[in-house]
């Protein structure tokens, strides 16, 4: 097979990628969601649990279930709940958070080799490969190299840093739901040829791309985004 790095994927998914591999002028961009797409499970939530378990969040009352509070915020407003999880790190030195993020990323067992191969294959064909994620930016940047992505091209939810200390002031637009498209416009500046996602939180980004591609799980055939993909004829691959 000419493009062996596409062998792990479904035939229609593979064909959709191969159809766009011929060289063309201008910047060529592929945008990937992270959690559930590049790797299984949610590394941002895992990092939050790790910080909670270590009692490392300086302004969060550890006398109650902090993760449960996070889930309540997400239930009320998904995007703002994700922002809350990042703002909870206010008061921590950014250097410490970067170090802890590298430690967790090094131990993260959920990377998908097939997706790392896809990233590297696209890069060899001249694509800028970006992560656009609703997890916190420190952990996304730390995990990006494990799937072959330059941390400078990894965008997540972040808050402002003042004198080396994380604040609770979110940097907007927030890369969650429709905000992913705003981030692509502001930070990347071109319409992606490819977008890859696994959930309805990625829907706006998928709609914005020239070629949306959906990643799903064999054990979750009823996932909402898979239903959308079937309705719209978007290629799907399952892990």
**What is the number of strand segments?**
8
The domain tally reads: 1
**Alpha-carbon Rg, integer:** 18 Å
Task: Describe the strand arrangement of the main beta sheet, using strand numbers.
Answer: 3-2-1-6-7-8
CATH superfamily: HAD superfamily/HAD-like
CATH topology: Rossmann fold
What portion of residues is helical?
40-55%
Major β-sheet, in short?
6 strands, parallel
Proportion of strand residues:
15-25%
Q: Give the overall pLDDT as a whole number.
A: 96
Strand/helix succession: HEHHHHHEHEEEHEHEHE
Quickly give the CATH architecture. Answer: 3-Layer(aba) Sandwich
Q: N-to-C terminal Cα separation, in Å? A: 21 Å
**Count of helix runs:** 10
SSE topology sketch:
Elements: H1 11-18, E1 29-32, H2 43-53, H3 66-76, H4 78-87, H5 94-107, H6 113-124, E2 128-136, H7 137-143, E3 154-157, E4 159-162, E5 165-170, H8 179-188, E6 194-197, H9 203-208, E7 211-216, H10 224-232, E8 236-238
Parallel strand pairs: 1-2, 1-6, 2-3, 6-7, 7-8
Antiparallel strand pairs: 4-5
Helix pairs in contact: 3-4, 5-7
Compact description:
41% of the residues lie in helices and 17% in strands.
Outline the structure in words.
- With 239 residues, the chain is an alpha/beta fold.
- The protein has one domain: Rossmann fold, CATH 3.40.50.
- Helices cover 41% and strands 17% of the residues.
- The strands form two sheets. A six-stranded parallel sheet has the order 3-2-1-6-7-8.
- Helix 7 links the parallel strand 2 and strand 3 (154-157).
- The longest helix has 14 residues, at 94-107.
- The protein is globular.
- The model has no long low-confidence stretch (mean pLDDT 96).
